[in-house]
Design brief:
alpha+beta, three-stranded antiparallel beta sheet, 38% helix
C-alpha cells in the first residue's frame, strides 16, 4: 500500500511540475508577443541563464542584454523541381 501511495504522490508532483513549466513558458511568450517584432532578453554573465523581459532596460548589472527579431532569418529559396 505504501508503494502505491508513493507512486501517486510522484505522479501528482510530475503533473504539477509540468503545469508550472507550461505556465512559466506561457508568460515568456505573452511578454514576447506584446512587442512589435523584437524579443528582448537578459543573459546572466555567470551561468548563461536566459530571462525574457519586456525591454533590454530591465537587465541588471549582472546580466547582458540581448534581443532578436521574432520573425527570424529568411531561409534559402526552394530549388525548382525539374519538369517531367
Amino acid at each position: 500500500m505504501a508503494n502505491r501511495a508513493g507512486a501517486i504522490w510522484l505522479a501528482t508532483g510530475a503533473v504539477g511540475m509540468g503545469c508550472l513549466a507550461v505556465a512559466i513558458g506561457g508568460t515568456g511568450v505573452a511578454i514576447a508577443a506584446s512587442h512589435s517584432g523584437t524579443i528582448h532578453g537578459c543573459v546572466t554573465k555567470s551561468d548563461g541563464t536566459l530571462r525574457i523581459v519586456p525591454s533590454s532596460k530591465d537587465c541588471t548589472s549582472h546580466e547582458k542584454a540581448i534581443s532578436w527579431n521574432k520573425r527570424g532569418l529568411r531561409g534559402c529559396a526552394r530549388a525548382a523541381r525539374p519538369s517531367r
